[in-house]
């Protein structure tokens, strides 16, 4: 998060830190939010314009506290300002190095006669990297890359530009960044009471949007820690469709790019994998919940350009056709995993664990004690949530097929939606007022519940009476899903709820979002508006408290750093907690409405 790259050249400017205290010298060469361990940096992310015109973060590391801002100068060049807080207990230095990323051609060297300058020569020509501040000559501060150092006893600036460009004073750098921040905040003002939410939601996506060199693309990812763990980038089956939708808060191009680049990762069997990794591997044995049609339909609704729809429709249709072929369990569907090419020798293929990964709710109590059927390659659980999402996917794709004039495919999709909707009716339990998951090994319904049981509303399966009963008796019941913080991923009376860890009770953005959409689809605007408002409160509380946009939150404390959780503190899909409010306020189109 302290490295800036000039595209397409690949010139990098990296900000490192060095601490010197008595015999101890320590260095920080990379900075990531949420890293764990003794003595690691602690980052509070701030606002970040998607185009890089302004960004801000706070960093604390081994006694140093500083604000780092970056943006575009008047000529489009990079300007950075590091402002340390007073009172550090040891001398610190800013170590500014340069290099070429991804084997791009070019050189960076220290200017012999200018101790504050690095000279970069790339395909785009010669560019100087200037460090502004109290320059020191420290031969032990850096590694093998050319670098310059400045003492952090006061502000330090970094400015790139042509060799003949004048060197600005710190005050001039400050003034440039103040203007850029004001421009970004001016854009946010268009959202009125949601200005702060817009800044937070667009910033987490911007911070996690990367240039991905293997396929030469810009793509939003779930988070930088995941990218590092997965060999460069991590795209996930349902996460990245949500990111395409979230990108609508910023504009057309990133939404288009995120949808297209994600669909490029489909497998030879035609499905979108659970994860698609920078190291070249994929989840060839499993997919993830089928939300692609619903999310891409919203991109098309907002920006209905024919070429985009033509690009995305075929892979989405292939994925839709794959589900009943690969995951049938009687007349309904179950999550699963099957034998497939596995060159990286992933150990969990064709197991219950892998089937849990396909559900996106890895260790949900719904799947406790449910066996995996290796003959059918599925869990012995006809899954209400999966079937409902699949019906909604069929109907969304039927609308898109109609827009393309593909009447045969539209008819095929509607017929499949109707067939599964009729089969889902068999899971309605009148005395419970629920559609309940069905254990195919025991031939009885399962008592374990989660918000996925409200997804039949999204599929438009229950009539008004049943819908009202589901919302009144279960969603708004404080002994089940309502309460101080909503929505827990399992009911509050479930024996696993006190654990909170992962899907055993924590609040998850996609569950809130899909349940909200389901309730809107059922026509209960009051409940939907309340769920959106309460989700926004959770989102803004984390942002204001720590600058976090958490992967999940405690449904006991409402925070993302509850010690019971396992939660990435800066996860892009956390912005789903906020996006509902933009629909409720009319800034985004109603996703439950038919395409015009």
List the helices and strands and how they pair.
Layout: E1 3-6, E2 11-21, E3 24-28, E4 42-48, E5 54-61, E6 64-72, E7 78-84, E8 92-100, E9 106-110, E10 117-122, E11 125-132, E12 134-136, E13 147-151, E14 156-161, H1 170-188, H2 195-207, E15 209-212, E16 217-220, H3 224-229, E17 234-236, H4 239-246, H5 252-263, E18 275-277, H6 292-302, H7 306-326, E19 328-329, E20 332-333, H8 352-359, E21 372-373, E22 378-379, E23 381-382, H9 384-404, H10 407-424, E24 428-429, E25 434-435, E26 438-439, E27 444-445, H11 455-458, H12 464-475, H13 509-521, H14 525-546, H15 576-584
Antiparallel strand pairs: 1-2, 2-3, 2-8, 4-5, 5-6, 6-7, 7-14, 8-13, 9-10, 10-11, 11-14, 12-13, 15-16, 17-18, 19-20, 21-22, 23-26, 24-25, 26-27
Describe this structure in words.
With 596 residues, the chain is α+β, with helices and mostly antiparallel strands. The two termini are 42 Å apart.
Provide a short characterization of the protein structure.
The protein is of the alpha+beta class.
Shape summary: elongated
What separation lies between the terminal Cα atoms?
42 Å
Structural class: alpha+beta
Rg to the nearest angstrom? 26 Å
Q: What's the total number of strands?
A: 27
Q: Report the helical percentage.
A: 25-40%
Main pleated sheet: 8 strands, antiparallel
Instruction: Tell me the β content.
Output: 15-25%
Q: Segments where pLDDT lies below 50 for 5+ residues? A: none
- Helical run tally: 15
**Rounded average pLDDT:** 96
**Strand order, sheet with most strands:** 4-5-6-7-14-11-10-9
